[in-house]
User: Fold these one by one.
Assistant:
Number 1:
Amino acid sequence: MTRRHAAAGPGRHAERPRVVVTGIGVKSPAGLTLDEVMDTVLAARPTAAVHADLIESGSPVHIACRVPEFDIASYITHRERRQIDRPTELALCAAADAVRQAALPDLPPSRVGVHLGTGIGGLPTMEGLVRDNDAKPTAMPVHSVPRTMANSAAARVAMRFGFQGSCVTYSTACASGATAIGEAARRIQYGELDVAVAGGFDSAVTTFMLSGFSRMQALSTRNDDPGNASRPFDARRDGFVMGEGAAVLVLERRDSALRRGATILGEIAGYATNADAHHIVAPHADGAVAAACMAQAVADAGLLPSDIGQISAHGTSTQANDRAEAAAIHRCFNGQAPPVTAVKGVTGHLIGGSGALEAAIALVCAERRIVPPVANLTTASEADRIDVVAGAPRRVDGAPVLSNSFGFGGQNVCLVLQPAT
């Protein structure tokens, strides 16, 4: 794909370093490795299930997408597990897989950074601490504060590997993971880092969180039909299914990766972020600001909208968000959008982890030249305005992919990813 840099703007020019991906680690409801995730996503196999603990707790929603059990002890010692919470566990395990795959050489520690995003942070652990100890505050566990710090995961990853570059935690709601990847790529392009471990994580399957989102009518209420609950862009959608998980990418300069003979999995070609400045939980209905974010990301990659081969939509399965995103895609691509997918019908909504997981999936889809079908898409709605893939995976020509992440507060983030070249 030819990259057009004639109209270079602030922070972007023809000579900036190219940022590639050399490692990916995931811990998600769809699988514990990226290959497992791809198998599940391409089969459009939903992972939502009823969980007994949610019923017993009195939660109004009994369904969620949880990460399957795995051998956490092979990643984290028993002592360390006492000091960290579930979201940090998932992030640390995903990061360990990504770093292992990247096979990084010895590098100056100050040149390697950790950039992670989370929408909820340690709130689930805080919920448990308050529930169990509010009547006896002197019994609060000694590790309560570090377990609930939103930046705990990034700090733990840096400590595990001795990375001493910028260690930053981003919180842009459901766009947090994508924000972390985009900002980490910027730090490499600006020359501040040579390598960055970047991604997102969250684990918000708790009574408090489900009750809060349920009161907002953001969650599906299909307790008796979990497999059909999450249905992005479908006319019968009634909300998303809460998920948990983490996805972490290792980013580095392309020239450095080539010199050391690293396996390049793809490239972070473009990044943009803006804000609807409209409503704290509802997107701007006309999609104009989100469309501008998409256009900026495409331009940042030195491309035209016609160069994009597929779109990984945010696709929450809520009425307002899917309608607004369809309008934004239609507007950005002038009614000629490429095929669109949305994986939350399979994975549920990982909140801060969703943008990172979806970026990883999008990168593989671009490499394999395939677009996954949207799970449970059976009834026409906003899909009439855009080309949403349903039923079976669709083969496409090799081209970059646009990955959208939109969060509460009008936080819009778009990434352009392309196969290794």
Number 2:
Amino acid sequence: MSGSAVTVIGLGPMGQAMSRVLLRAGHQVTVWNRTPSRADDLVAAGARWAASPAEAVAAGELVILSLTDYRAMWDVLADVDAELAGRTLANLSSDTPDKTREAATWASAHGASFVTGGLMVPAAMVGTDFAYVYYSGDQRGFELHHDALTHLGDPRFLGEDPGLAQLMYQANLDVFLTALAGIAHATALTGSAGIATETFLPGAMRLIAAIPDMIAPDGAAALAALIDAGEHPGTDSNNIMMGATADHILTTAESAGIDTALPRAVRALYRRAIEDGHGTDGWTRTIDAIRATAASA
């Protein structure tokens, strides 16, 4: 093998996928996991098993962490001190921006550089043309291992604040989980009338696929430019119209006897925008309503 030495700690589906991609790219991959059997297939494919986290860290120039959260990182690396010096830790685990900043300070105190990563595809898509990863933190460490990280997905460096990649990761998952919640709520709503999911879901999926063209007919960049400029045109639909729809969805859910927390929260956004005098603006004006809520909290 001619590739650089990379260690992967944490062999859930994502950690295993990253390890396989790195092995295929010719890297010298060392792996560690609390449950050793998860490494069996990787070892058979050419990875080296480390007997301890300290041994795993010592083996890698780049140490990729793929764990449940940052608490798991503290637990795994609790007794690893001397081995950290000179290493680049790339933590692709999910947590909060503040936790990542705390971890970067800790890594720096031990002589290691720290890079936060947010891998934006499921395990099956790691290393494919669809994969992309947000990074932030120590730029030197990122650039030093750019080639290895590129194998996981298109690397997008956001800056030296280690919290930025985590924030971007959570923001994307905010969209994803909210969309899933909408599908779940709508499925329960139609089900309350005896409509089978197989009847409802195909149409809902068609709607989801059409949303980009509906909300950004000129492309995402054009929509983003309007939002950043504080422009929220309500030419085709406005907050009064959308708010009325939100009222109808909530009333329908109440009548159906299903949970109303989600439609109530959505309606609150449009009501706030209207109360703030932006009824004739477009739906993107609700972003200001969300910002105002955060500012007053």
